[in-house]
Amino acid sequence: MGKIDEVLERCLECRLCVDNCEFLKSTCETPGKLAEDLKNRFAEIPNVPYSCNLCSLCEVLCPEHLNIGKMCHELRNQMVADKLAPLPKHQSLIDDQIWAASDSFFLVSPGLNAKDCKRFFFPGCSLSAYSPDLVIKTYQYLQDKLPGTGIILGCCGAPSYELGDQSRFQQMLGKITAQMEKQGTPELIVACPDCYHIFKENAPNIQLTTVYELLVKKGLPEVTKAENNKIFSIHDSCKARYESGIQDSVRKIAAELGYSIEEPEFTKDKTRCCGMGGMVAYVDMKLLNRITMGRVKELPHDVLTYCASCRNAFALTGKPSIHILDIIFGSELDKTRRKSPVIGAARRKNQAELRSRLTGKAGITTG
User: Fold this and answer.
1) pLDDT tens track for 19-45
2) Is the peptide bond before 63 cis (omega within 30 degrees of 0)?
3) pTM of the model
4) Which residue of 209, 220, 304, 347 has the fewest CB atoms within a 10 Å radius of its CB?
């Protein structure tokens, strides 16, 4: 258990990470003491490694750049290998992973002419669940600006990765990369920061970019601009913590559309997790609520984010929030900002609807 030993050897017990992390506050005095406890009896306290958001803020704040999330993830991998996990509480998440890889949602379409396909758009499972309309409008934009763009519906496998279920993760990731190799298209356009992180770290042969960077590069569509200098509190996804290109693109889009951005104290590389990271919701809803409400208190205005899971987290608290694509391709923003979170059966319903709408269009073929 290399990460545990690393924390044991290097932790300065300065508590900078503890003071800024609800998970650490609730479990330990210092990461060093947590590492010692986990090393001796992690099988007796299985919820603890699964209660970390894996957000990496500790790594930014720590003078030694220790990452407690990496330690917890290493333990999750070990627990799955030892058949101590996934935990019973994770069963609904596993069911969602099976669904996302099934023909009920998974789809590969190279577009009207397979020979012309040069790249794929991968909206991810969360954005697909949040708004089929936004996915379709974004895809139409990409086809217009970048002819030869196909689409893949599915999940990158991030939930399985975060559970420590490496076997299922590799199956899900491999299902996507195999389709790209079959088509001979190395380029992938993603909308989800989590997907971006997964592909960047685990599929280095893919030429990766985001919808947001392309919107800045290719130009925004003609849309209604903001009135009355609307101000948003911006929330950066923790998976985009080190991705300044994504962060800057989102801010440029908002500014071009006439919106003002207010940066919280913890922003960009120091952003706080919305609470959804690390699959914490499946083992400790009270902790999730504390994390999310803590973040909400730092965001005085309506929240603007570019992660559908983050948007869901804020919506669960009743905090008005929207996805960046809402201000580009959406409508009725006053209604959207109060939209209920898309969870449970509603996720699958929207994902299935998206697949059905795409396959109902001429020229769409499944892989």
Assistant:
1) 999 999 999 999 999 999 999 888 899
2) no
3) 0.95
4) 220
Asked if residues 352 and 104 have their Cβ atoms less than 8 Å apart, the reply is yes
- Determine the Cα–Cα distance for residues 270 and 60; give it in Å rounded to an integer: 7
Neighbours of 227 (CB within 10 A): 7
What angle do helix axes 285-297 and 308-316 make, rounded to 10 degrees? 90
Q: How far is CA 354 from CA 77, 87, 295, in A?
A: 33, 31, 31
Q: Which residue intervals of the chain are DSSP H helices?
A: 2-10, 22-27, 31-41, 57-61, 68-81, 91-100, 124-130, 132-145, 158-163, 166-183, 193-202, 211-218, 244-256, 285-297, 308-316, 326-329, 333-336, 345-359
Measured CA to CA, the distance from residue 200 to residue 195 in angstroms comes to 8
Query: Contact, 281 vs 299, CB < 8 A?
Result: no
Residue partners of 22: CB distance under 8 A and separation at least 6 = 287, 290, 291, 294
